[in-house]
Design a protein that fits this description.
This protein folds into 2 domains: 30 residues, no CATH class; 90 residues, Sandwich (Immunoglobulin-like), CATH 2.60.40. With 152 residues, it is α+β, with helices and mostly antiparallel strands. It contains 3 helices and 7 strands, in the order ααβββββββα. Strands 1-2-7-6 form a 4-stranded antiparallel β-sheet, with no helix packed on it. This is Molecular chaperone IbpA.
Length: 152
Amino acid sequence: MRHFDLSPLYRSTVGFDRLFSLLDNVGNEANAGYPPYNIELTGENAYRITMAVAGFSEEDLSIESRESILVVKGEKTDEDGEESRVLHRGIAARAFERRFQLADHVEVRGASLKNGLLHIDLVREIPEAMKPRKIAIRNAGEAEKQIEASAA
């Protein structure tokens, strides 16, 4: 992937630092394919991230949400303490860290691990003050009559 130099845009804009840093980081994610994941829309304002983490237990995984970033880490611990002789390794058990950029007002509601799939449920809760509201349109003549009636 090509790298674009965005530094000329930094000189002529104010307040877009976060947007430009996101554009700079596109394609720079290490281990971009591991572990595989899906992002689903489960409701009008509900989402679910499903990650394939076969071989990892709850103790091997950590989920952290800070500011607007969700970080999922996995680090396999050796249960036996002994080194086993694996003749063929096809199941990846390497450590990973996956980051998801969350939109404003998106919160993590919970996580569950079942059959090697980690499910993380997210909900977008928009504050009442930011929700769209309907403004009633009155006839201009009615407003003038109300003002005259109250003045008399």
